[in-house]
Amino acid sequence: MNPGKTLLLLQFLLCAATAAAQSAEVRFRVADRATREAVVGAVAELRSRTDTAAAPLYTTSDIDGRGTFPRVPHGDYRLTVTSLGYDSLRRDLRVGAATVRLDSLWLAPRAEAIDQVTVEAPALRSSVRGDTLSYRASAYKVSFGADAESLISKMPGLEVADGGIEAQGRTVQRVYVDGREFFGNDVMSAIRNIPADMIESIDIYNSQSDQSEFTGVDTGEGHTSLNIVTLPDKRRGAFGRLYGAYGIADKYIGGGNVNIFDNDRRISVVGLANNISRQNFSFEDILGTTDRSGRKSPNNSFMVRPLDGISTVQAIGVNYSDDWGAKGKVTASYFFNRTDNHNTSQSDRQTFTSTDKLVLYNDENRSKTLNLNHRFNSRIDYKFSDRHSVMMRTSFSLQDNNSRNELRSRTDNKFSDDDIRFVYRRRNFGHNNSDGYNVSNYLLYRYRLPGAKSHNLTVGAGGTYRSYEQLSRPRQYTFRDPDNIECDTSDYSSRNITRTDRDQPGYDVNGNVSYTRSLSKRSRLSFEYRINYTDNSVERNTFVLTKENVFPDERNPKQSTEYDYAYLTHRIGSTYQYYFKKTKIAGTLHYQHAAFSSDYAFPYARKTETSFDNLTYSVVANINVNRNNTLKFNASGRTSNPRATDLQDIVNTTNRQNVFAGNPGLDPVYTHRLSGQYIRANPAKGRTFTVSAEATASPNTITDSLVIDSPDFVIDDEGTKLGEGNQYTKPVNLAGLWSLRASVNYGMPVRWLRSNLNFRAGISTGRIPSIINGERNFLNNNVYNAGLTLGSNISEAVDFRLSYTGRYNVSRSSSEVRTLDNTYFSQTAKAETTFVLWKRLVLRANADYNYYRGITDTFLEERLICNAMLGVKLFRNCLGEASVGVNDILDQNGTTFRRTVSGTTLRNVTNLAVGRYVSFQFTYNLRLFRRQSNAVMDALQGK
Description:
mainly beta, 5 helices, Carb-bd-like_fold, signal, Outer membrane beta-barrel protein, OMP_b-brl_3, carbohydrate binding
């Protein structure tokens, strides 16, 4: 066998004495003689010494180095253990008792590589350790130079899509490298800047909150995390990837990543510059200027995907982690991102009404946006002694956004195919300057109290200050003459020109105290008190410009407001946690009292005060049925506060087509959530099976109350009417929100193809309440999906991944308004290949097929995007590569398409995209380890 290929060899042979009527169980553990660490995937052979005709049986060592022969007839046997890179071990034994235990079988490392083996078995793909699902990287081969993203995309139950990672149906919120935070909470930065050949395993688990880590009590406030475990011999050195390319016409990209690891001290630098919309990490949208999804949950992350259109990007990031002596640990990261975006989008929208009338709307929007974003995160842990320790987490974000746009639109009323009546055209000009920052710090102190019982006191305190300022100068012209196609701004029917200054500072102060005590070896009890104070100020001054007064001094009282609001929340409660063997169950119950106060200074003076009392709860259970089967359950009930823009008591008529009104009477939202997960890993056969399900419900969710097709509807106290073709939106609390989703993933090796095959299927159903023209509406949505992924596991010279996903969506609305029922089918097929054709010649190609077909309508969208690149490996060690290729060979990606459906509207949008170009690229993979990296390490240490 080629020594350059790392294979985990699995082999079982067992000889049974046919004359024996009884059987026994043989257990063993395999470990490295030098390091005392477990040897995973070792092949164990048990052969009868008396009956040479007996058929052999099989077993292998698992992630802990343990293996079992379950039913062995009594008799004399010879046990042979082999593993790649070790000398074989043989031991004679007699099987007579019910259970035979062989404590540690020590394997001696072999000086030279194994040249030949006679029996192959599937490499260890996955295993379960407590609540952690671990994937063995060597069982998923990718081409040299591939990053962790390519490796993860081949693993069952993991999916990389839409700028994030889904693990068994849950979103991964943080990535660690060898247990250390890596690039903060930007998961894509981490997996795109770690080479796949550095990785030993990928671990998926539920990490706890900072408070739970200190107390040792799981309060259910954690999140799904991904830990990249690097190979031990790759933890000291310099590695990374540098690349540059130029495309015709005038397309370029250059960047790379350099990682310098010296065991605990690790520095990573990433950089990127291009004009083809590539992002190597996300930026943090603290201003909300790039939100395209409408209403956001208060718990949503600010991390956003790239903007629609074509972007010129410059970005740089640094991640640093180190041990400060024997007592301190530090992790810090900094990002800078500059994105200059331009886009030409076209959209058409159909709005259904309570009559046979259909409101048709189409527009073309030309926009330019310049966004600058700085982000810093750090965590410092320091242990003064066995009793005293602290943790401090600091973050800072700064954003500056400048955008301009011109939008031309037309609105018609359709009564039939032959009866379409013109309503108006509009021409909008927008100019917005926004900037803001967010700084926070949190300190947690733990004191282990003396005494026989394990008990500790934890005290935490933190604060956040934020500021948001915006200057907007929108202009809207309405033209009711159907012949005025050019929309000349000197010949309008009406206009609305305003200037709005918005200032929104705020701060949070929080503290907590908890006392934790062990009741027994298996149980622990914690008492906790938390306090949080949130204060926000909103000042919005809108000035209406007229022909007579171009520079008004007085703000418009209908569109301006000035108020403060605050939440003071007290929580007190207890958590009980119980352990039994490897099973953990924890229950938390808190009483929560929240006091809300608001003080309006403009356009009128008014003070309001109210309070809310709730019980919040959490139940967490991790049940390890056995070494290969794990069950997880989580139930919780929590509250979230409304947004500041939802609470403001004004009617925003800046865009008369979409009028928005705030609602100062909104209550905090209470949400119940129940989730479960089952994980089964069969290391011997290389199979992984997971099932996950989640249900949510809210008795008072915040949703929209819409008014459509009602031109005489009065929108304010002064009798202003909504007008023809416009829509009015106001947030309200409504009952009836619920959702349920479930997914199944199954992964297995395909031996004859030397590949891994992953199946997945899922279903989600739910109901979203709203109000349309005063009538209660429920949008019921059902989604069914299924897919598979075939990933090669042949060698670095042959790397391919084929995937398919089909999705069937059914949406139905229950309102008396003639709302939209939408059924459609979509499918996506992808192929990614890398082949070493001959010696150093490399072919890289990928294809992406997207298909969308409406069932309730005849809409059809279909496109195939193909890219290919031919390169040659350079230098003696093949670390360099020069290549030429074509992006979007069929030239079908000049625009991107997106369809959105709500209870009353159906909207299709196309955006500008990069399209076809030819490029020339050079790539160099940096790999300096062991002796080669000594100079780098000495330079870092100042030697």
